[in-house]
């Protein structure tokens, strides 16, 4: 991804990316054009849209990220930057760098809490896309860094979520979860070996794990996210008065 909001990659570059299969196989609806009527006839699509709206309006993680994106010059619009689609059974969402669009897997997201996490995770990728020259397609370290940040800051690795996955641990468990989920995410969307994914994650882990923007802290709960959102708003008010 590129700094700011680039609507698309050059056609030849996007075609090359698709041919090399940069995760597009997981999102088969990406290249299908469906009418509004056809899409709204499916219950999954309507439910996905309703859950998305609720997340964007009420979830403190998402609200903070939307505000941070706006202030970084990348305003997010519901109808332009989100797309509810059918996906492969192993994924819940994705960030399409070629279109600056977040894909939400309507056939795999069934609960509001799940929607909250997926939207937050992908908005972190969108924030990284906005603020940095991220080479999503060619530089696996760049991808690894954003996946580390998304796992660390989105709530993916909260204690309750890990218990639900039947994973338990105390010392260093959060870091272990972030590392594991970052590696899994890379392997899901790139044709690289597990060793390559692990090496990329390990090489950038410390720097990217400690990059807490725009939250300023690791939000382990909604209460943490609300505090981070308040702090973010107050920080902006302070900066405006300088």
Automatic annotation (TrEMBL):
GO cellular component, one term: mitochondrion
GO biological process, one term: mitochondrial protein processing
EC number: 3.4.24.-
A matching Pfam family: Peptidase_M76
InterPro entries: Peptidase_M76_ATP23
Keyword tags: Hydrolase, Metal-binding, Metalloprotease, Protease
Designated name of the protein: Mitochondrial inner membrane protease ATP23
Organism, scientific name: Pteruthius melanotis
Gene for this chain: Atp23
């Amino acid at each position: 991804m590129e700094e700011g909001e680039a609507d698309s990659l050059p056609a030849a570059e996007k075609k090359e990316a698709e041919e090399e299969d940069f995760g597009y196989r997981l999102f088969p609806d990406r290249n299908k054009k469906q009418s509004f009527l056809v899409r709204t006839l499916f219950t999954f699509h309507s439910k996905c849209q309703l859950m998305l709206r609720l997340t964007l309006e009420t979830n403190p993680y998402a609200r903070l990220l939307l505000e941070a994106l706006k202030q970084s010059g990348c305003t997010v619009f519901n109808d332009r930057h989100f797309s509810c689609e059918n996906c492969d059974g192993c994924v819940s969402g994705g960030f399409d760098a070629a279109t600056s669009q977040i894909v939400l897997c309507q056939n795999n997201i069934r609960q509001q809490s799940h929607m909250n996490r997926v939207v937050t995770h992908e908005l972190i990728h969108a924030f990284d896309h906005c603020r940095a020259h991220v080479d999503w397609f060619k530089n696996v370290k760049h991808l690894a860094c954003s996946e580390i940040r998304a796992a660390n800051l989105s709530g993916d690795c909260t204690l309750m979520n890990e218990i639900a996955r039947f994973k338990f641990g105390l010392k260093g468990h959060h870091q272990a979860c972030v590392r594991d989920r970052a590696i899994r995410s890379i392997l899901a969307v790139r044709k690289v070996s597990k060793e390559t994914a692990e090496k990329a994650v390990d090489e950038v882990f410390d720097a990217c794990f400690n990059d807490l923007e725009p939250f300023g802290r690791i939000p382990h709960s909604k209460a943490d996210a609300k505090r981070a959102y308040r702090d973010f708003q107050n920080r902006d008010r302070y900066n405006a008065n300088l």
